[in-house]
Amino acid sequence: MTIQGTEKVALVVTNDQHTNSTVAVCPPVVNLDDGGTYHATRTQRALWDCWRDFWQQANELTKGYRRVGVFNGDLGELDAKKRSTQLVTINKATILSMVIETLEPALDILDAAYFMRGTEAHTGKSAWLEEAVANDIDITIRESKAAASWWQYTGTAAPGVRFDIAHHATMGGLPWTCKNAANKLASLTMWYYRVDRDGKAPHVVIRSHNHTCADSFDNYPARAIFTGAWTTKTSHTRRIGLENAISDISGMVILCEGKDEYTVHKIKYESPEDKRIWALKM
Length: 282
Description:
Elements: E1 2-3, E2 9-14, E3 29-31, E4 37-39, H1 42-61, E5 66-72, H2 92-107, E6 112-116, H3 120-123, H4 128-136, E7 152-157, E8 162-166, H5 180-196, E9 204-207, E10 214-215, E11 223-226, H6 235-239, E12 249-258, E13 261-269
Parallel strand pairs: 1-7, 2-5, 5-6, 8-9, 9-11
Antiparallel strand pairs: 2-12, 3-4, 7-8, 10-11, 12-13
């Protein structure tokens, strides 16, 4: 499948918003169905400012391009496994409304959008939350008549740049091993496409899920990029011994300018967690 449009196409990639988590990006004020009001925390307000700034920068970078958004999974947080109390609400209608309001800065500039399905523990069985959001957005590029969202996209931008996009991929949990995941993914991709299929490999492979950035750059003909997130540490993160880990807060713009030619612009922000270190006194 090809991303249809003008000769120059810009992919604007974000993921892992986890909206409805009390430690993730969300609008500053959320009206609850019982008449109450949720006000974003200091951390959430900082994430919201970064989120709006990202889309302003993306708007500037992509002038003259057809803008295609890629929302690469985990748009919201349902906590389907009931592991935590870190939720704004459990009302599904309110969560859906909150996710769409969070997307408004993006929808103001995009010409089209792909919604990828994330992790069922976060977005429900068969990632129904992404499917519901995708069905509500007019500019959604549907996977089929039956499904608005995608488990995987394998296709090209108009200038002939090939992409393989999905939410999930594994990554090592140690600081000195996690970055190797991009090289592993790039080499696996080359094998799957060139050996198993005897075909052309994608130019760019995009994966998310781990809240950590990694990039294989030009180590292989297929470039594998892991993206960051728009949430800080949850109680689950602390429970598995990653209390000192910091999420990479970031998004990405890929400008497809000609046949086989693309440029990656990564936009990163300091995590609100960084500012808390050494802030407390005994």
